Amino acid sequence: MALRFTSEQRLDDGVLEREFTLGEIPGILWTPASTPEPGPAPAPAPAPLILLGQPPLGLRKMYPRLVARARHAAADGFATATIELPGSGDRPRWDAVDQARAELRRTVEAGEPVGAELVDALVLPLVARAVPEWQAALDALLSLPGIGGPVAYSGGVISIGVRLAVVEPRLVAAGLFAGSFVPRAILEEARQVTIPLHVLLQWDDEVNDRQAALDLFDAFGSAEKTLQANMGGHTGVPEFAGDDAARFFRRHLK
Questions:
Q1: Rounded-to-integer distance, Cα 9 and Cα 159, Å
Q2: Looking at residue 169, what DSSP letter applies?
Q3: How much is the pLDDT for 43?
Q4: Domains annotated on the chain, with CATH
Q5: What is the average pLDDT across 106-116?
Q6: Minimal CB count within 10 Å: which of 10, 76, 151, 224?
């Protein structure tokens, strides 16, 4: 799939933000500001790249959080990019997944347990479609001037991050948010993950199952894996947790 830039703006901290389409998939690329030096300007070293995962709420809704993460990464010299998930935002609706989401809402509001079949219907089709799109995006992004390796993945639907860590050899590290339902098949795939991991868990998450998150962390096959658990609900992530994640990426991308 061809990547085509559709808009460009320089943010107030010098970060260059460019919207693009990858085929029919919208996305955004942020690259750090270059620092001028005296004398002839040498060609800047290619920037490491962090793929910014997101929940299936749409790029426009998630933009404030995404650009904040991109700015922090740019301060460390990293480029970041994200793409719209299938069935989200301005992409065509996906009836099967929409129905699964509606059933999930009904189940949670009724106080009923979320069964394995519903989790599979909600997550596995999304993973199967999204991961090849992320790989296509990575192909296109790494071909751009000024973008190089190494590459990491950050946040988003944790099952997408798990599958991507298994099938994509260009990933050297991943920071994952333990805040979404995990199918049993993904739990088994986690045993094949060997890259360094930094996993963030909200201990009092009112939406997701704490024990399922702990089981997933235990299943990861990585020799280096860190679980950071903080008190608070789903949206109560403390600011210092972002600082700890940034140190993780600096350690593995620089």
A1: 32
A2: T
A3: 58
A4: 3-34+45-90+130-253 (3.40.50.1820)
A5: 86
A6: 10
Radius of gyration of the chain (CA): 18
pLDDT in tens, 168-183: 999 999 999 887 789 9
92 vs 24, 137, 247, CA distance in Å? 10, 19, 37
User: For the purposes of burial, counting CB atoms within 10 Å of the CB of 187, is it exposed (0-12), middle (13-18) or buried (19 or more)?
Assistant: middle
- Any alpha helices (H) in 32-152, and if so which ranges? 59-75, 95-109, 116-142
**In angstroms, rounded to a whole number, what is the distance separating the alpha carbons of residues 81 and 16?**
12
According to DSSP, residue 227 is labeled E
Q: Scan for tokens 């903080």, then name that residue.
A: 230
**What pTM, to 2 d.p., does this model score?**
0.92
CB atoms within 10 A of CB 38: 5
> Residues 122-125: contacts with CB within 8 Å, 24+ apart?
122/97, 122/181, 123/157, 123/159, 123/180, 123/181, 123/182, 123/183, 123/186, 124/159, 124/183, 124/185, 124/186, 125/94, 125/96, 125/97
Q: What are the pLDDT digits (tens) for 175-232?
A: 998 877 899 999 999 999 999 999 988 877 776 778 888 999 999 999 999 999 887 7
Identify the bridge partners of residue 208 per DSSP, sorted by sequence position: none
